[in-house]
Every structure is written in C-alpha cells, then in structure tokens.
Specification:
Distance between the termini: 39 Å
Shape: globular
Structural class: mainly beta
Strand content: over 45%
Helix content: under 10%
Length: 126
C-alpha cells in the first residue's frame, strides 16, 4: 500500500501561483511513477502531469504546458506541482496518484494508477 496526502491548495487570484505537495508513505516511493490529476465540478477527472520514477521524464496536458511544473524528491518521498499563471479553468480538486513502474497502461489514464490521495481544492478567482 502507498498512502498519499496532498496539501497546498487554496484560493488564489487569476494570474497567481500555487505549489501543491504530495507526501507519500508506505512502499518505496521510487518504485512508482507519479501523476497529478484534477476534477472540476460536473466533469471527469483529467490528467494534468506525470513524472517518471527518477524524475528524468515529465509529461503535461496541453492545457497546462508551460505554466505547470511537476517534480519529485525521492529522498523526501514527495511529489510537487508548481502552478503559475493560474486561471479560472484551473479551478478543481487536484489529486496525486501513483502507478507501479512495471504497470501497463497509459500514464495519461486514471485507470493506470494504483493509489490516490484524497485531493486538495484549488480555486482561482477571476
């Protein structure tokens, strides 16, 4: 089992920034690729960003590319999402998720992830 706890959400004005954190515990963190997803009211959960076990490869949704940065610190069992130039469309509950590095399936799909955090709310006021 891997336990994931997100933090850092909140209310921010359009154009502002937030940094989300995800603390992992349980099994060896570096054995997992990690991702951030988000879910807005009335919408399906969608991919935001993903990072390989080493941090050497990162992937982004087109809607956040150039504004968001995913990173991880395997020594601290932590995942981060730096969000800049936020706009109202970024308002959602943000979830971190873990997928075994030997797992199959697309890193962009929610079904490929084995463990999820409880989510943290990000609200961007326009």
């Amino acid at each position: 089992q891997v336990q994931l706890v997100e933090s850092g959400g909140g209310l921010v004005q359009a154009g502002g920034s937030l940094r989300l954190s995800c603390a992992a515990s349980g099994r060896t963190f570096r054995n997992y690729g990690m991702g951030w997803f988000r879910q807005a009211p009335g919408k399906e959960r969608e991919f935001v960003a993903a990072i390989s076990w080493s941090g050497g490869s990162t992937y982004y949704a087109d809607s956040v590319k150039g504004r968001f940065t995913i990173s991880r610190d395997n020594a601290k069992d932590a995942l981060y999402l730096e969000m800049n130039s936020l706009n109202a469309e970024d308002t959602a509950v943000y979830y971190c998720a873990a997928r075994n590095i030997y797992g199959t399936g697309s890193r962009y799909a929610t079904s490929s992830y084995d463990y999820w955090g409880q989510g943290t709310q990000v609200t961007v006021s326009s």
